[in-house]
């Protein structure tokens, strides 16, 4: 009971901070990715293609480098081949670093954002993401210690979808 109260209080505090950050125009502190440089959650009915991403206890993603075209909606099929929980979170370098720090402080934090999926050992998950801008979008596993061990990758978003 006390654990649920602490979790609820923590989540309420996070939501308040995100609302304040959004109101002040500072998206780096929150998770408002709708108009961020990384794109937006995609519509499953408009998926352009599927990309499988494997996660392993070697603290690596395969592939770690992915190329997409601006305008594509990608279904990332995220497969945990390891024996520990992993996740894939899309974000800016600042967002990922900030979130990794929060995960170290609160390792049981669960994600409900469209840009992230947490996958238990031997399981699969997915992220459907629409890439709206050219450039680089990073991804990482933010489970405590995984980001620091190098469990990261990047999506290179090129040009315009033809």
UniProtKB/TrEMBL annotation:
InterPro entries: BlueCu_1, Cu-binding_ET, Cupredoxin. GO terms for cellular component: periplasmic space. Residues 51-157 form the Blue (type 1) copper domain. Residues 1-23 form the signal peptide. GO terms for molecular function: copper ion binding; electron transfer activity. Keywords: Copper, Metal-binding, Periplasm, Signal. Pfam families: Copper-bind. Its main location: periplasm. Gene3D superfamilies: Cupredoxins - blue copper proteins. It is found in: Periplasm. It comes from the Bacteria. The keyword Amino-acid biosynthesis does not apply. PANTHER family: AURACYANIN-B, COPPER-RESISTANT CUPROPROTEIN COPI. This is Blue (type 1) copper domain-containing protein. It comes from Ralstonia edaphi.
């Amino acid at each position: 009971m006390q654990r649920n109260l602490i979790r609820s209080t923590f989540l309420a505090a996070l939501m308040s901070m995100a609302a304040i950050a959004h109101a002040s125009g500072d998206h780096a502190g929150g998770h408002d990715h709708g108009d961020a440089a990384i794109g937006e959650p995609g519509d499953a009915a408009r998926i352009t293609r599927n990309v499988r991403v494997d996660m392993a206890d070697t603290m690596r993603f395969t592939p770690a480098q992915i190329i997409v075209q601006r305008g594509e909606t990608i279904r990332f099929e995220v497969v945990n081949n390891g024996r520990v929980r992993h996740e894939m979170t899309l974000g800016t370098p600042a967002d990922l670093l900030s979130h990794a720090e929060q995960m170290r402080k609160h390792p049981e934090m669960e994600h409900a954002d469209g840009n992230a999926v947490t996958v238990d050992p031997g399981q699969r998950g997915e992220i459907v993401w629409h890439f709206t801008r050219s450039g680089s979008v990073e991804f990482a596993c933010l489970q405590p210690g995984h980001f620091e061990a190098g469990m990261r990758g990047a999506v290179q978003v090129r040009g315009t979808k033809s």
